[in-house]
User: Fold this.
Amino acid sequence: MNNSKQTALITGASSGIGRVTAMKLAEKGFHIIAVARRKKQLNELANQFQNITPKQVDLSNDGETKDICRYLSELQNPVSVLVNNAGYSIRGVLEDVLIEAARRLFEVNLFALMRVTQACLPGMRKLRTGTIINLSSIVGKFTFPGGGVYAASKYAVEGITDALRLELAPFGIRVVAMRPGPVTTEFNDVSNELSGDPMIRTDKDYKPIYQAAGAAAGKIFNGLSIPEPDLIAGLIVEAILSDAPNPVYSIGPLCDEFLGKRECLDDKNFHNFMLEKFDLMNLQV
Ligand SMILES: NC(=O)c1ccc[n+]([C@@H]2O[C@H](COP(=O)([O-])OP(=O)(O)OC[C@H]3O[C@@H](n4cnc5c(N)ncnc54)[C@H](OP(=O)(O)O)[C@@H]3O)[C@@H](O)[C@H]2O)c1
Assistant:
């Protein structure tokens, strides 16, 4: 299908990976529906590209998500490219996590992804073609200490993505998991702001654990060259335009080391590798 006849929906298009992907696909002639909460950022995009339609939606809000799904299912020119990108992280050991905050995160990272995909699929089935790109993460396959809630949402995205890829292959609809390592976007600032300083509110028992894991994470990240969102957006566009995209793209720093070890070690040895890596092996509290 000609790009100019294709509609691409990108969630989380107001910043980071989603924003650059929207710009790159708009340059290729796709009609873009750009979804996020921040109207100003969406309007700035739409002012730059006349083929970008901004849609202000809070994907943690049930009514707003249902409204955008209704709009999508009624489109004359159905979505043939879907980039499920909206997402964020909160940090903290499980005892420090507020269940309401975890529920909201799952609403955005997982349930909105499922609902938007459900709204787009009848159109894609009718076309007998389409591409779905789901933003997972390296932590879709393992977790850092204090990262369980976010990682759990990405493990779930991986599961949904793997099932969809099988279910939709007979329709010619391609399903891709994008598994980036760290990327320079607003992601960390958002996570820091939502999580606050865990040392202030955690039980004193956990303080040495936060301290050890935090210092170890500092060492892991120190000197890493963190890519710009352009790298991931470029790969997303490459997958969309490819005749045969890979099922999964792992990209960026830490992928080789952590995903590599996750693949080649058994569960027990991977656990020990992570204990060592985060200086928790000999810590007794
Ligand atoms: N950056 C990384 O290190 C990294 C690594 C691996 C995977 N990822 C994944 O990549 C994806 C994009 O993240 P990014 O790095 O580009 O971060 P980002 O710059 O913070 O972008 C996140 C996007 O999600 C949108 N979003 C968040 N909550 C939303 C809500 N309730 N309703 C609608 N939209 C919402 C944000 O828009 P509004 O705030 O305007 O709503 C924003 O456009 C995420 O799924 C993330 O998990 C990121």
About this structure: Strands lie at 7-11, 31-36, 52-56, 79-84, 130-135, 173-180, 248-251. Residues 3-197+226-253 form a domain with the Rossmann fold fold (CATH 3.40.50.720). The chain has a mean pLDDT of 97.
